[in-house]
Amino acid sequence: MAKLVVENVTKKYGPALTLEKISFTAEEGQITVLLSPPNGGKTGICKIVAGLDEVDSGKVYLGDRDITNLEPKERNVSMMFQKLALYPNMNVFENIASPLKARHLPPSEVKKQVEAIANKLKISHTLYRKPGTLSGGERQRVALSRALVKSDAELYILDEPLTNLDAKIRASMRAEFKILQKEINQTMLYATPDPIEALSLADKLIVLDRGKIVQQGTPEDIYRNSVNKFVATLVGYYPINLIEGSIIERGKKIILQTDAFEIEISKLRNSVKDYINSKVTLGLRPELLNIAKTEPKTQEPSDLFYIKGDVFEFEIRGSDTVVYVKINDQIIRVLESKITKYDTGMTVWLQFNLKDIYLFDAASEQLIR
Amino acid sequence: MKVSSLIKFVLVALVTLILIAYFDLPILVMIITAFKQRADIFTPVPKWIFTPTLKNFADIFAGTTTMAEGTLAIRNSLLFVTISTVIAMFIGSLAAYGFSRFKFFGREDLLFFVLSQRFMPGIVIVLPMFVLYSSVGLRGTPLGLILLYINAALPFVIWMMRSFFDEIPREIDEAARLDGHSWFTIFIKFVLPVARNGFLATFLFSFIFGWGEFLFALILTTPESWTMPIAIVNSRVSSEILWGQIAAYGVISIIPVFIIAVALQKYLVRGMTLGAVK
Predict the structure, then answer these.
(1) Which has more pLDDT, B62 or B151?
(2) Does the structure show a pLDDT above 50 at A343?
(3) Which residue of B169, B178, B194 is in closest CB contact with A89?
(4) Distance from B267 to chain A by nearest Cα, in Å?
(5) Residues above pLDDT 70, as percent of chain A
(6) How far apart are CA A310 and CA A326, in angstroms?
């Protein structure tokens, strides 16, 4: 295993997508996740690192080697494709054995290694079947086995390995994958459009938007301190609530005024002083909001806000409850990690903490605080 | 069965019969003629009941009445067409793979140029070819005809195979490249097997084309290198045209194509509907 360094890589992929000055490091033994919506440039980066696409400019290093212009087979990397790319004319055994056969390993050794990885990924019973006869989850495992069977690869690239699975299998594969990663402990570059996958698997998270890196860091850091509206919207378990408003000064107080409610944010004076009288977007994460069914007793000035509204609708999702609270025509999603029943139309108080709010400049969409 | 559906059945059956008769009667007549004795062939009213004979076939194999020596034409045809089709399939598939997978300057122009080789009617170039072949000593040689058939089949093979390769996801090649295989191995072991149906259909079409080719064979062969179509035309002696023998030749010439077509039937349909269904 080795460290991957991508330096100022630029590549034009036609009118819709250009990778611009992509720079990041994937640390040894860690899993680095590329997260973006479709057509964000994830697959492009994977292919460039794998050697399947050439760069227009920039450098790629693996360990101490400059691999920018090397052929894929000279790079000693392994890749799993989003479309799986299983060889339809070969059975599962031959599919997994392909990288080993390319190295002319003796047949007994090939057999041993293929069987070992098939065992680990629980597909031993499919070894002599064609990919066309397998279920989606089994195919996924075959593709993963083929990528992992190259046990001396210095880097494993996984391009949306779980995307084509249905939700249930995806969740269980995600958990398995995490265990597997701990077990094999290799450098991995993992692309996904799914924020939950990204947050739960990443040691390091890189968020891309239309070919540019917008933010990189630990998942916690990116979740807490999303640099702009795009990242805040993308990185989260449930879609963030976005409320248009403006910051005004009233006497000595600084007020955030929206169509739905007003809150005093004087404590944030230092962060927002340049934005007084300008339009902003307030971001509230559903999982950081609470609901009180009775009116809170004291309304002393504090960091806690209580906003009165009424229940518009609620959904119980297994062990969670999503409540839609209506405040002056603005509907705000709240996620409660427990089952709570409400009556539609009942009055409730939305509760949140000053430290949990996001403020974005409405024009540039960048984070103000 | 209701009356209306009975009528429908009868109508469909009738139309089918007419179509079969339209396409297959000439072949039937040819087959019957091949087994007739000379006297039965020339009756004013076609004779459907007669004493069959194998004399026409025996004459061909004995080489008694034709200018060419017995089975030579059959052997020539099989040899020339098989060799040229195999070589054209090999070269053409490789070229098609290149056209499908690699972007290079002038790719589309080159493809158009390849196709343009088929724009001209053969009759236009047959005389220049005659002069050319005569001057370089290729006329009447097996090599000459094989080269010509390769050249004639190539544009077709390249275009057909390219469209089949285009349908195969690039990720298959890419995965094989990452596994560490060479381009040639990827082509032979990973891509070609997936394009098998298209490959066989293209092979069959090319084979049939070469098997029935007449014009160039007529101009560029000598009796030693006659192919079947030419031998058929030349089945005559000074006094008459040997219809029985021509029919027997016809029957023989159908056999290989028939066998291949039946064997490859399912791939053939795939080849013909290419592009029809996405």
Answers:
(1) B151
(2) yes
(3) B194
(4) 16
(5) 99
(6) 5
Q: Which two tokens stand for residue A340?
A: 């709570």
Q: Any idea of the CA torsion for A191, A194, A196, A200, to the nearest 10 degrees?
A: -10
For residues B207 and B211, what is the distance between their CA atoms, to the nearest angstrom?
A: 6
Contact B190 A87 (CB under 8 A): yes
Partners of A47 on chain B (C-beta within 8 Å) are 174
Q: What is the DSSP letter of A191?
A: E
How far is C-alpha B248 from the chain's CA centre?
19
Tokens of B63: 């080489």
Beta-carbon-side half-sphere exposure of residue A369 (alpha carbons within 13 Å): 14
Instruction: For the full predicted model, state whether its pTM sits above 0.90.
Output: no
CB-based contacts of A131, cutoff 8 Å, min separation 6 = A84, A86, A87, A88, A90, A91, A92, A95, A139, A142
Report how far residue A114's alpha carbon sits from residue A105's, in angstroms, rounded to the nearest whole number.
12
Cβ distance of A73 and B174 shorter than 8 Å? no
**pLDDT tier for residue B66 given thresholds of 50, 70 and 90:** low
Tell me the β-bridge partners of A359.
Answer: A282
For residue B172, the chain A residues in CB contact (below 8 A) are 85, 87
Q: In angstroms, what is the C-alpha Rg of chain B?
A: 23
Q: Which of B172, B180, B185 sits opposite A87 (nearest CB)?
A: B172
Q: Residue B275 pLDDT more than 50?
A: no
Tell which residue, A286, A363, A299, A368, has the closest CA to residue A332. Answer: A286
Identify each DSSP E strand in A14-118 by its residue range. Answer: 18-26, 31-35, 57-62, 65-66, 77-80
ipTM for the assembly: 0.80
Minimum distance, in Å, between the CA of residue A99 and any CA atom of chain B: 4
Q: Which of residues 163-192 of B touch A (CB under 8 A)?
A: 169, 171-172, 174-181, 185, 190
The reply to whether residue A146 touches residue B179, judged by beta carbons under 8 angstroms, is: yes
> Which of the four pLDDT bands, split at 50, 70 and 90, describes residue B277?
very low
